[in-house]
Amino acid sequence: MRKLVLRFSMIFCMVGMFLGPFESVEAKKIPNFWIRNLEGDRFDTRRHKGPYVISFFFVNCVPCIKEIPELHAMLSEEFPDAKVLFINPVEEDTRKDIKEFAKKLKIPQENFYRDSFGSVSKKFFKGKFAFPTIIGVSKRKLIFRHSGIDDKIKDDIREKLSAEG
Question: Of 12, 86, 113, 144, whose CB is crowded by the most CB atoms within 10 A?
Fold first, then answer.
């Protein structure tokens, strides 16, 4: 059964990667939301003043395993004031699964959030959903949206976050 789930997860990720980049979504207004991380701390968009980056993932997503450490390292080193939220919207992934995933990737648990009812992810996706998806927000506006990570995408993230000051 576990092999079947892993195979399905890998196929789902691969299909998401081939869907291609999303259409331009910059300057769209972002809805308010709040969510608690694995340590119980609350992130609320109404109270957060600086830019933030969301990465939607699930624990068996192979591209996510590559993307999360790269994104975390880049943001921690180059944009330490930008909050990063790794949000898992997959109901089947438990808190324990996500904690083990964070430990495996050596990323602090304070950056991981479980959106098991999809209340946050539904605000960002209408139809197509690809893992991983990275979304940048500043001043309640969407400044970038990407699926996956590579040097070109990292350069775009740097450019957009730098422009936000």
Answer: 86
